[in-house]
Amino acid sequence: MNTINNPLIFKTMKKVLLSIAVLAAIGMTSCKNQTEEKEETTEMTEEVKEIAMSETTFGVRGNCSMCKRTIEEAANSLEGVATASWDVDRKQIHVSYDKEVVDEMKIHKAIAASGYDTEQVAGDEEAYKTLPECCKYDHEMEMNLAEPAEGEEGNHHEME
Length: 160
Description:
Blueprint: H1 7-52, E1 53-59, H2 65-76, E2 81-87, E3 92-98, H3 104-113, H4 125-129
InterPro entries: HMA_dom (IPR006121), HMA_dom_sf (IPR036163)
GO molecular function, one term: metal ion binding
Protein name: HMA domain-containing protein
């Protein structure tokens, strides 16, 4: 008896192949749904993180773009700080942070530890002594200015 021409075997093979194709299609659809659910969860988590972020702006003494780099690095080194941007002309820093992880005073202390005075914490004197000459600011300098000090705007050198 020839098995290739046997109609019973042919029907059985046809059913097996059809079943495999159906299972493969179901499997692919199932995987696609899992990926979409994961993407949805990730988007929701990012939205929750954005909502939980706090923002603060406070004064920090400094002179130039080298100061800017050091001040921002000090703030950004803290876990929970998302962004930190110091305005050279206004002598103020704007920080976005997760208040569940870090509080504003820790940000002041981190910047002060790098040698810079903030509105609430005096800069570390030993760190101040190691700053480049161009970064040694006047300890009486006004900070957190609404407008740049007269003659100050743009009066800072570029980083090398």
